């Protein structure tokens, strides 16, 4: 049986980073990846709408995400800043408003109150420390409840809920408000910074895959694709990992799969009750990202909606055939991405004349190796699970963006976690 110092399960950014750092320290590392590609929850497809490259998963980064930014600099990966949208579009239950703001003038004070409440609550904690150890349990509530507790009403409340749901990729009764306030907090409590970190940051000129490939090549870890792991059995001397295609032994294992996937792997000893519980509950990020190519749409549309199928529709670029739109919905299956008429219906809630020519999406929620999009917490999960998700179990080290601090659920968080886990293993062996 093959023996390695470390077996890394999953070749997303967490796994690739951990493998590289361990290789740099002289470890013999094998990466086992279930899919036939690296990148995990990032997936750049170079040629979709007539040669346009699309990111099916993780897309935007900002310089404040210091881990991913450092990797981009290290490998000289080209990135480009997003253009500011020329206008904002607001859709109130399908009615497009062409007003300055999505609230009537007599409610501007309400909007100001909403922004103040967001910044005040985001300023209450330090995103670099575990939130469950700070006095903010009152914010770990569903998005709707946070808005009500903050005294928001009318359109200002709906705008804030739509924005939070967009960030959480979850609906207003599921997603934790605290997890979204964390985004604002991580941008030094700047609302504008939070907007940049969500859909106005930098994108990878040659796709996220360009960075994933650079990290893999640098580390030189062995990689086996199409090798889903089925069993992880620990004993006093090491860990036996069984995957489709073989069995390997290692001193230690790095586990980077999304939490919802843990329950499908047989662990011995069994996963502790808290890890099993969150795996079964899963995280809140259960929405959709859909790309559409459309005609008769403003080239600079950037639209937020409430009571609409998509909660965000934004233009990314213009081709000879039309405008490339990125669209998000806070729940899966709200829009049938395989049905152009359905995508058109949903886009028309933002651009009534739109003619959708093509659409493309990946159903992350139904993908057995993801079971969700990005790993935002459900309300109440901070207290229960924030620390348990990254806790080491014997020789098995739990990593992945869901275990990160400042930028959990981002590419940056995945890299942060990979670095942390590699350092943890090296420290444990000293
Ligand atoms: C639609 C979408 C949009 C996003 N937008 C952004 C964004 O704009 N900016 C941003 O920073 N982040 C974004 N994210 C989040 C970001 O992509 C993730 O947080 C990050 O890529 C997670 O990396 P990871 O290595 O922790 O996990 P993953 O990338 O999920 O890697 C885990 C790996 O484990 C593999 N695996 C699963 N089960 C097994 C098994 N049994 N055996 C072996 N391997 C297995 C998977 O195939 C996968 O490759 C987005 C994610 C999605 C899905």
CATH architecture of the domain at 2-41 and 207-271 and 393-428, by name, is 3-Layer(bba) Sandwich
Number of strands: 19
Strand residue percentage: 15-25%
Which geometry do the CA atoms define? globular
Intertermini distance: 26 Å
CATH class of the domain at 2-41 and 207-271 and 393-428: Alpha Beta
The pLDDT mean sits at 95
Multimerization status? single chain
* Percent helix: 25-40%
What is the rounded Rg?
22 Å
Instruction: Say which molecules are bound, naming each kind only once.
Output: flavin-adenine dinucleotide
- According to CATH, the homologous superfamily of the domain at 2-41 and 207-271 and 393-428 is FAD/NAD(P)-binding domain
What is the CATH third-level topology name of the domain at 2-41 and 207-271 and 393-428? FAD/NAD(P)-binding domain
Largest sheet: 8 strands, mixed
């Amino acid at each position: 049986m093959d023996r390695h110092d470390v077996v890394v399960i999953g070749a997303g950014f967490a796994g690739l980073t951990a493998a590289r750092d361990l290789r740099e320290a002289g470890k013999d590392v094998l990466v086992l990846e279930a899919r036939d590609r690296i990148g995990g929850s990032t997936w750049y497809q170079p040629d979709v709408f007539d040669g346009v490259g699309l990111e099916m998963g993780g897309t935007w980064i900002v310089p404040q995400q210091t881990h991913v930014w450092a990797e981009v600099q290290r490998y000289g990966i080209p990135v480009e800043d997003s253009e500011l949208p020329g206008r904002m579009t607001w859709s109130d239950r399908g009615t497009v408003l062409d007003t300055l703001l999505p609230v009537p003038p007599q409610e501007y004070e309400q909007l100001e109150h909403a922004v103040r409440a967001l910044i005040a609550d985001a300023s209450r904690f330090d995103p670099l420390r575990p939130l469950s150890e700070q006095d903010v349990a009152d914010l770990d509530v569903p998005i709707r409840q946070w808005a009500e507790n903050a005294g928001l009403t009318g359109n200002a409340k709906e705008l804030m809920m739509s924005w939070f749901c967009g960030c959480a990729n979850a609906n207003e009764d599921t997603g934790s408000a605290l997890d979204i306030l964390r985004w604002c907090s991580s941008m030094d409590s700047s609302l504008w910074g939070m907007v940049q970190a969500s859909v106005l940051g930098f994108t990878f000129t040659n796709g996220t895959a360009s960075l994933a490939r650079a990290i893999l090549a640098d580390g030189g870890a062995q990689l086996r694709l199409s090798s889903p792991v089925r069993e992880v059995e620990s004993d006093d001397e090491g860990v036996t990992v069984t995957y489709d295609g073989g069995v390997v032994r290692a001193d230690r294992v790095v586990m980077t799969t999304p939490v919802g996937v843990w329950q499908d792997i047989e662990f011995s000893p069994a996963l502790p009750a808290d890890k099993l519980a969150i795996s079964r509950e899963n995280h809140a990020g259960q929405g959709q990202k859909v790309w559409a190519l459309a005609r008769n749409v403003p080239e600079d549309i950037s639209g937020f909606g409430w009571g609409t199928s998509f909660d965000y529709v934004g233009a990314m670029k213009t081709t000879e055939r039309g405008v490339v739109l990125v669209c998000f919905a806070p729940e899966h299956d709200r829009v049938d991405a395989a049905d152009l008429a359905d995508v058109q219906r949903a886009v028309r809630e933002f651009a009534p004349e739109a003619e959708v020519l093509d659409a493309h999406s990946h159903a992350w929620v139904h993908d057995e190796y993801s079971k969700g999009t990005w790993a935002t917490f459900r309300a109440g999960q901070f207290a229960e699970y924030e620390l348990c998700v990254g806790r080491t179990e014997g020789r098995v080290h739990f990593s992945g963006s869901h275990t990160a601090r400042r930028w959990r659920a981002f590419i940056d968080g995945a890299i942060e976690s990979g670095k942390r886990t590699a350092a943890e293993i090296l420290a444990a062996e000293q």
